[in-house]
Amino acid sequence: MSLDDRAEELASDLGVDKQEVKEDLENLVSYSVPMDEAVQSLRRKYGDGSSGSGSSSPTTMDVADVTTDSGNVTLTGRVLMVGPRSIRYQGEDQTIYEGELADATGTIDFTAWNDFGLETGDTLQVGNAGVREWDGQPELNLGESTSVSKLEDPLEVPYDVGGERTVRDLQAGDRARTVEVTIEEVERRTIDGRDGETDILSGVLADETGRLPFTDWTANAVIENGGNVRVEDAYVREYRGVPELNVSEFSTVTELERDIEVGDAVAADSIFDAVVGGGVYDVELSGNVIDVRDGSGLIQRCPECNRVAQNGQCRSHGEVDAEDDMRVKAILDDGTATTTVVLDRDLSERVYGGTLEEAKEQAREAMDQEVVADSIREEIVGPEFRVRGHLSVDEYGGNLDASTFERVEDDPADRARAFLAEVDA
Amino acid sequence: MSQAPTREVAKRVFAREFNDATFTFKESDDERAPNFALLPTGDRANRVFVVGTLTETEDIGDESEYWRGRVVGPTGTFFVYAGQYQPDATAFLRDAEAPEYVAVVGKPSTFETDDGNVNVSLRPESISASDENARERWIVETAERTLDRIEAFEDETNEYAEMARDEYDTAVETYRREATAALDSIVEDGGETEEPEATP
C-alpha cells in the first residue's frame, strides 16, 4: 500500500484533511519512522481512540450501548428536546442546558455545561462526551473538552422530537417540556429563597389527561390570571412523592385561546401499575378493603404539630393538651398490589356513620376508644371501594390521600360477559 | 422510589386451585420469613381474599373453641379454621347464621392427614358479612387474575411456574376451565332475570 493510500485511509478514518495527513506522514517517514508506527503516531495526534492509548479515549458507539462504565464516548444523535436551567455552583450562578438525545437505538439524557447553541431537532456529532451515572442511568456530560458539530441531514429516530407532552406523561426528571393546560388553582406566596425573599406561585394545573401541582418561580402574571396557558421549557421534579411542574426564568408562558376539557381523575389499570409507577397526583384506584390499620378511628393530635399523640404525649412536644380527631388508615388490595388509603375526618365520619362527638360518646361508654376503629372495621373490611386522591410512594409502599371513597356497585354480570368475550376471542 | 409494596398482596384464587396448592415454601432462612403456598398456575400466595357463601359452621374444638366454616365458591369449597388466636373470626363464625355471604381475608395453611393427604385451608385474618353483588364481582376479578397467571405461566423467567411444573401434575388448562366456568355461572344467572316475559 502506497503512502498516498495510507494517507487517504487515515484521513477518512480521522475525518481530517488528506493533504495535511499526507504531509505529516511523509515527514515522519522521512525521519525513518516505520510506516505502521507513523500511522499510529498520527492517530494519536488526531485523537482517534483506536490507537489504544488507554480507557479514557472516546469510543464511537450507539446510544443503547452507552453504560455508566462507558467513560468518554463519541456518538451521533438527534436532540429530542433541550432547555436551559440556572444552577448555583460554588456561589456562582451558571446556566446549564439539559435535554435528551436519541439515535435509532435509544435515548439518553444529557447536560451541557457550556452553551453549544443546541436546539430541539438538531442532529449532532458529539465527540468526547463524558458519561456519568445519574439516578442509576448513564447521562452524557458535554463540557470544555467535548466537540459538538451540527450535521446537515437530520438523523431519523423512532422518537418524538420536541418537548410537547400531556400532563399524564410528565415524569420527575423531565426537562424542557411543553404543556397546554388550564390553571385550576393558583396562589401567590412569599418564600425565603436563595436571593432573599421572593414571590412565587403555586397551584394545580390540568389538561384532558390529568392534573398536577406546579410551582412558578417567576410569579408570571399570565399564570396568576388563571385560564388556559401554554408553558414551554418547564421541568418536572418530584415533590412530596408526586411529580410537580416547575416554571422557571427560562420558560415561556403564553395565553392559550383553545378550550381544554379537563377530565376526571385518571383511573389506574391496577394498584400495582400505580404504585410501581411512583406517585400520581389525582388518581382513581379500586380494590377491596382487607384491613383497617392500628391508629384508625378516634385519635388525638398534638395542637402544636398536628401529629398523633399517644396518651397525651407528643413525640416532639411532650405532654400536650391533645385534640380529638378521626381518621382511617385502610389497606386497599385488588389482587395485584396493596396501598394504604388515608381518610380524613370528614370521610371517616361518613364511613363510621356518626360525628366525632358520637364517636367520643361511644368510646366513653365502652371505656375504650378502640371500639370506634372496630365499628369502622366492621363497616368497610370486605367490600370493594373506588378511591380518588393523591398517591405517594415511599419505601413502605403506597399511600393514597383520599378525596372520595365510594362503594363499588357495578353489575358484575356485564363485566363477566365482556371478559368472556375477550377470552373466547 | 418504585419499590415493590412491602405488604403481601391478597391473591385472588378459586377453590379448586387453592385446594390443589399443597406445596408450601419460604424464601429465606429467617424464621420469621413469610410462608407461601405455591399456586398451581405459577404464583406464590401468602394471603388470599375470598368472597363466597358460608354454608356450614361447626365447633370442632376439644377444650377450647375451634371453629370450622365452609365457604362455597362457584367451583368448590374453601375450609376456614379459626381458634383462640383469631378471636374476631371465631366470634363471627360462632354467631353466623349460615347460609350467608362472607368476605374472608386469610393465610393459606396446610396439614397432612393420617393417610398422607395434604389438606389446604384458610386461617382467617378477618371475616365480614358480604352480599351477592360482591360475590359476583369477586368471581370476575378472580377469573381475571387467574387467567393473568395462566398467561404468564409459559414465561421463561417465571420461577413460580417452573416450581409448579416440578411440584404438581395438574395441567393449568384445568384452572382456565375453572375460571371460564365460574364466569359462565354468573352470566347465566344474570341472563335469566333479563328474559323477556312471555306475551299472553
Structure overview:
The complex is a heterodimer of chains A (425) and B (200). A 5-stranded mixed beta barrel of chain A has the order 2-3-4-6-5. In chain A, strands 8-9-10-12-11 form a 5-stranded mixed barrel. The longest helix of chain A is centred in the first third of the chain and has 13 residues, at 18-30. Chain A has 425 residues and is an alpha+beta fold. Chain A has 9 helices and 22 strands. Chain A is elongated, with a radius of gyration of 30 Å. Chain A has helices at residues 3-14, 18-30, 35-46, 221-224, 271-276, 345-352, 356-366, 370-380, 412-424; strands at 59-60, 72-89, 92-103, 106-112, 123-134, 137-142, 147-151, 177-193, 196-207, 210-216, 227-239, 242-247, 252-255, 266-267, 280-292, 297-301, 313-314, 318-319, 323-333, 338-343, 384-394, 397-407. Chain B is an alpha+beta fold and 200 residues long. In chain B, strands 1, 5, 6, 7, 8 and 9 form a 6-stranded mixed sheet that branches. In chain B, helix 3 (132-151) packs antiparallel against helix 5. The radius of gyration of chain B is 18 Å and the shape is globular. Mean pLDDT of chain B is 87; it is low at 1-5 and 190-200. The chains are: A alpha+beta (425), B alpha+beta (200).
Question: What is the element layout, followed by pairings?
Answer:
The complex is a heterodimer of chains A (425) and B (200).
Chain A: H1 3-14, H2 18-30, H3 35-46, E1 59-60, E2 72-89, E3 92-103, E4 106-112, E5 123-134, E6 137-142, E7 147-151, E8 177-193, E9 196-207, E10 210-216, H4 221-224, E11 227-239, E12 242-247, E13 252-255, E14 266-267, H5 271-276, E15 280-292, E16 297-301, E17 313-314, E18 318-319, E19 323-333, E20 338-343, H6 345-352, H7 356-366, H8 370-380, E21 384-394, E22 397-407, H9 412-424
Helix pairs in contact in A: 1-2, 1-3, 2-3
Chain B: E1 10-11, H1 15-20, E2 24-26, E3 35-39, E4 43-45, E5 47-59, E6 67-73, E7 76-82, H2 87-95, E8 100-112, E9 118-129, H3 132-151, H4 159-167, H5 173-194
Helix pairs in contact in B: 3-5
